[in-house]
Write a structure and sequence with these properties.
The complex is a heterodimer.
Chain A (H helix, E strand, L loop, with lengths): L8 H7 L10 H17 L3 E12 L2 E5 L4 E5 L1 H7 L4 E8 L3 H12 L1 H31 L4 E2 L15 H8 L1 H5 L2 E2 L5 E2 L3 E9 L27
Helix pairs in contact in A: 1-5, 2-5, 4-5
Chain B lengths: L11 E2 L5 H7 L10 H4 L1 H14 L3 E3 L13 H18 L7 E6 L14 H17 L4 E7 L2 H14 L4 E5 L13 H10 L4 E5 L4 H14 L4 E4 L6 E3 L2 E3 L4 H13 L4 E2 L7 H11 L13 E4 L4 E4 L4 E7 L5 H8 L3 H14 L3 E4 L8 H15 L4 E4 L3 H10 L5 E6 L2 H14 L2 E5 L10 H18 L6 E4 L11 H16 L2 E5 L10 H14 L4 E4 L4 H13 L7 H7 L17 H4 L6 H7 L2 H13 L4 H22 L4 H21 L9 E7 L7 H12 L2 E5 L6 H10 L4 E5 L6 H14 L4 E5 L5 H6 L4 E2 L3 H13 L1
Parallel strand pairs in B: 1-10, 2-3, 3-4, 4-5, 5-6, 6-7, 7-10, 13-14, 13-20, 14-15, 15-16, 16-17, 17-18, 18-19, 19-20, 21-22, 21-23, 23-24, 24-25
Antiparallel strand pairs in B: 8-9, 11-12
Classes of the chains: A alpha+beta, B alpha/beta.
């Protein structure tokens, strides 16, 4: 099952560190478009989402799953979720093929390996953006607005919460992503995230970069500096 | 009556869901359900009893997640679960015809090389559970909800090593019939049949409706009893809780349809209850029962690919075999696995279907090498492998670690050899290449060879290896020493097909040993062999004439639908060049940058031209060191400075580095006999908790290009491993990389341990989150903002 959405070449270039008005040579352009085609064709995207009631108080976010409460401590996430009473937890992956493409490329060419990495990163984001937009429409029909995606390990939200996501969403079984002892996901082109649901339209949408405490110095920031 | 004697002979029924029932009894989210075996045994007993009373013959113990990653007391939990289930069966008065199933679920971890759980550790984890269950009196092992065939294999191997109970394996597929790790129904069935389990099936994932088409595929390819255990529909969330909607009647109606497809064991999974099971049993048990039938397809599989051995011949790439290949021998001695991987990718690109893997050299540890080469190969290619060795320990370790059902090369007609090899094939499964030679040597005639082939088939029968998994080697021997040898070989191949309906294989190029123009003889011999029924050809797929014979044969014999393979390979064919063209797209690399100097080729990152230019420079009589100092390093420096200045971006830097690396490989080859000079040894590692290794790999390439010997410990490396390696090799500089804020702590820990145990080693750190201040704070000697900075730092240390 191919990716099903286009991988924006500009995003691939951004993940590779290109910024500004730099000219990219035809050799590299050709390699990028080949990588984009391969990653797109061999991806097997999967997503699992669940909606939970949440409560935000100071820097504490509490998620209810019917029988238990999960507490997240994060100033940045609390700011993101201010005024929300629900949230969508999600996990998504483009599957294991991209990781193999990277490994294959790294046997013969470190340049191509870097390009496949970037194409994979852009692919999972493009897939998520597409699903995110669909969710936005569904909720907007009910008069609700979605906040920017926020992930464990992002800003001051501890990566330890990966374990909560895996338990709540049964991620291993649902989409075939596993957590290593070091809380990293395999396949690597996978994302866990939370999307706040609110009634306030003005806080919806927009890039997640501005909510991050590193957004001034980050080499990958989506805003041109 | 033993369950094994009933499976496949009558309707049998499994139980249904556990989690949803326990939740109704008050199990909290996040609470581990198996603790109830000790804290609330009566509730678990009533759960089990409900299913025995509903009519289930196979009821699972409450041990799905009872592994050492979640519990310290696995044995206690499992023993209690078996006892509870036995009591429930007694109370339900079902001791005569129902079985207590030791339930084994996935570990929740991904196995190496994709994840971080070593295969043999996974086997230990499962063995611990199954042993406890067996000793407590369980009747059958049910391995279920597996979404990775490799993990299922680990569980089956564990079960076979601790007990002789029947083994049932059910996997989770998605709606396209794929496992989450990429394998398909047919390949998974082939692997599990090879492992000699007792029944194979599907469970969980979705409801009975969505499972129907997959059950259909199972019925088509599986020779064993088939198990189908769906959920009560697709899961839905209600206020944060998961619910299933299909009621007992609807469930039973679809299960009736599935039963009619010809499956043998039925039950339920998430969301199903004793009511679902009871209603289903009432519908199904009155239907006529169809016993499983043996299917005669032969498959060789990897975790993702499935190659059929049959009428269309299969190409087995022969290039990973050190016999007569100096470069491969050197690579094996230097543990240069990348060279082997490159050979594998080339053969895959050229059209091989299976890769032969032989790593036998007298001076290396063959069993360890076989194991690590197989794992590495399976991390870069989907092609199934042929494990080729005469070393029985290497064979066993290779078969054990292999993900899928491999080909085995080989067994012969000697009794001693049959007794050593066949038990391994019976245990792990595999398609077995069989050489018709025995204690008296190689028979000259096909009569003699066919007689030994018959003996081998009979031995396979005794070991329970299906005849379809035997592939007889026609034994190609050079015509230059025996003018009848090709005739005897072709006769043997034909008679294997006609007299045994069997499969055959040839190491084709042996036929021309000692002759000039070998590829002419080889390619014609290949055509003749295929015409005589050859199933598998071991050849060099990068040889144009050989592949031309192969593709032409398929085109002529209606084995290439729409001639698409042939047209795809030869659409740009130019008459008269056939002998040198491989028929694949490989010529584009040489076309660009034809007239560039070595320095220019490196700056522009043209790998092919850089290699060529280096060869020309060496041929012109220049000293290799002179070329490196005068052309190669300055070119790299120019690119490096551009990168530092922000006028060259990462991909160009990497392409230049690749080109330089290729040029260095030429030098290395030329200096193979001379002692190598190096500036010194450096360790590189991405620290524990971090798997981002692109940056580290760039540093590695640059350091190597600048003359350093790099010990690359990889990614997610524990501090102890780095420190031990530094001590063992008396390392002067360690380079550590971390991309994430969260892993800086493990970088700090690594530095701390290094300071304690190897204080004279310098540490240079880098990575996206690093800053000079940060690096000082955690006690590093230096911060390097990129690969060039690391090179300059190492130069400063080693030249001091």
């Amino acid at each position: 099952m191919p990716l099903g959405v286009d991988i924006p070449v500009k995003e691939v270039q951004r993940y590779m560190g290109y910024h500004g008005l730099i000219e990219i040579g035809p050799d590299i352009q050709a390699k990028i478009s080949k990588a984009v085609d391969m990653v797109s064709a061999q991806s097997h995207p999967r997503i699992v989402t669940k909606e939970y009631p949440v409560r935000v108080r100071d820097n504490e976010i509490t998620i209810y799953n019917g029988t238990e409460e999960i507490v997240l401590c994060s100033e940045a996430l609390a700011r993101n979720l201010k005024g929300c009473c629900g949230a969508i937890l999600l996990a998504a992956t483009i599957g294991p093929a991209c990781d193999m493409l990277v490994r294959r490329a790294s046997v013969t060419s470190s340049a191509e390996a870097a390009i496949y990495q970037a194409a994979g990163a852009a692919a999972i984001e493009a897939f998520l953006d597409d699903r995110n937009a669909k969710l936005e429409k569904e909720y907007e029909a009910q008069g609700l607005f979605l906040r920017p995606r926020f992930s464990p390990g992002y800003g001051d939200l501890s990566l330890d919460h990966q374990k909560d996501w895996f338990r709540l969403l049964d991620i291993s079984k649902q989409i075939g992503v596993e957590l290593t002892d070091s809380l990293l996901m395999v396949p690597t082109k996978s994302v866990t995230a939370l999307i706040g649901i609110g009634i306030d339209k003005s806080k919806a949408g927009c890039s997640g970069c501005s909510g991050c405490n590193k957004h001034d110095t980050c080499a990958y920031s989506k805003e041109d500096k | 009556m033993n369950l094994r004697d009933r499976l496949g002979k009558e309707w049998l029924f499994c139980d249904g869901g556990t989690g949803s029932i326990l939740q109704k009894m008050g199990l909290k989210g996040g609470e581990l359900p198996e603790t109830w075996n000790l804290t609330r045994p009566d509730d678990i007993k009533s759960l089990n009893r409900g299913y025995f009373e509903a009519g289930s013959n196979i009821v699972n113990t409450n041990t799905f997640g009872a592994n050492r990653f979640k519990y310290d007391n696995v044995s206690e939990i499992v023993t209690a679960a078996v006892k509870i289930c036995q009591e429930a069966r007694k109370e339900a008065d079902r001791e005569d015809d129902a079985y207590v199933a030791i339930d084994v679920g996935p570990t929740g971890k991904l196995l190496e090389p994709m994840g971080d759980l070593p295969f043999n550790v996974a086997v230990d984890v499962f063995a611990e559970i199954i042993k406890a269950g067996y000793e407590a009196g369980g009747d059958v092992v049910v391995i279920e909800t597996m979404s990775d065939s490799y993990e299922a294999k680990a569980a089956v191997v564990a079960a076979k090593e601790v007990c002789d109970l029947p083994i049932i394996v059910t996997m989770v597929y998605d709606e396209t019939g794929k496992l989450l790790t990429g394998g398909g129904v047919e390949g998974t069935v082939a692997m599990l049949e090879g492992l000699k389990v007792d029944a194979i099936g599907i469970n969980c994932g979705f409801g009975p409706v969505q499972m129907l088409p997959i059950a259909e595929r199972l019925v088509k390819c599986c020779s064993l009893p088939i198990v189908v255990n769906p959920n009560a529909g697709l899961p839905r969330t209600e206020n944060g809780a998961t619910v299933y909607d299909v009621d007992p009647d609807d469930f039973a109606n679809v299960m009736e349809q599935i039963a009619k497809l010809g499956v043998h064991v039925m039950g339920g999974c998430c969301g199903t209850t004793p009511d679902h099971i009871r209603t289903m049993i009432n519908k199904v048990k009155v239907l006529p029962f169809t016993a499983p039938t043996a299917k005669d397809e032969t498959y060789v599989t990897s975790f993702a690919d499935c190659v059929k051995i049959g009428r269309k011949p299969v190409i087995i790439g022969e290039r990973i075999n050190p016999t007569g290949k100096k470069k491969l021998q050197q690579a094996l001695r230097e543990n240069n696995i990348d060279y082997i991987l490159t050979e594998a990718l080339k053969q895959e690109e050229a059209g091989a279907h299976i890769l032969d893997v032989n790593v036998g050299l007298p001076e290396i540890d063959e069993p360890s090498m076989m194991e690590s080469v197989i794992v590495k190969l399976q991390s870069v290619t989907n092609l199934p492998l042929q494990i080729d060795t005469t070393n029985i320990e290497a064979l066993e370790r290779g078969m054990r670690i292999y993900n899928g059902k491999p080909m085995i090369n080989s067994v012969n007609g000697k009794n001693e050899n049959i007794e050593a090899v066949m038990p391994l094939v019976a245990k792990y499964g595999g398609v077995l290449v069989s050489l018709p030679l025995d204690e008296d040597g190689i028979p000259e005639t096909s009569d003699g060879r066919i007689a030994i082939a018959k003996k081998i088939y009979e031995a396979a029968d005794r070991y329970g290896i299906p005849r379809k998994d035997i592939v007889i080697d026609g034994l190609a021997m050079t015509v230059s020493s025996d003018p009848n040898s090709a005739i005897a070989t072709l006769d043997t191949v034909r008679r294997v097909r006609d007299e045994f309906s069997g499969h055959s294989i040839l190491g084709v190029s042996n036929i021309s040993f000692g002759l000039p123009a070998r590829e002419l003889v080889n390619s014609h011999f290949l055509t003749m062999a295929m015409q005589n029924g050859l199933s598998c050809a071991i050849i060099n797929p990068c040889n144009g004439p050989m592949m031309a014979s192969y593709r032409s044969y398929n085109a002529l014999m209606n084995l290439d639908p729409n001639l698409s393979e042939f047209i795809d390979a030869y659409k740009d064919y130019v008459a008269g060049t056939s002998a040198s063209s491989s028929g694949t797209k490989s010529s584009s690399a040489a076309s660009s940058g034809a007239a560039l100097t070595l320095g220019e080729a490196i700056e522009r990152g043209v790998v092919g031209r850089a290699t060529e230019a280096m060869r020309e420079a060496l041929a012109s009589g220049k000293e290799s060191l002179e070329i490196i100092d005068a052309e190669l390093i300055p070119a790299l420096d120019r690119v490096g400075k551009g990168f530092e200045a922000g006028t060259v971006f990462l991909p160009q830097l990497l392409m230049s580095a690749d080109a330089a690396k290729a040029a260095f490989a030429v030098v290395k080859e030329a200096m193979a006999d001379k002692p190598r000079t190096t500036k010194g040894q450096v360790i590189l590692a991405t620290v524990k908790g971090d798997i981002h290794d692109i940056g580290k790999n760039i540093v590695k390439v640059m350091l190597e290009n600048y003359g350093y010997d790099v010990i690359d410990l990889g990614k997610d490396v524990p501090p102890e491993v780095i420190v031990d390696c530094a001590i063992e090799n008396n390392i002067k500089v360690v380079g550590l990389s971390a991309l994430m804020t969260t892993t800086v702590a493990s970088m700090e820990e690594t530095i701390k341990q290094l300071r304690e145990r190897k204080p004279d080693t310098k540490v240079v750190v880098g990575g996206a989150v690093m800053t000079p201040e940060y690096s000082e704070q955690i006690g590093a000697d230096a911060y390097a903002k990129d690969a060039m900075a690391t090179v300059r730092y190492c130069d400063s240390v080693f030249e001091a």
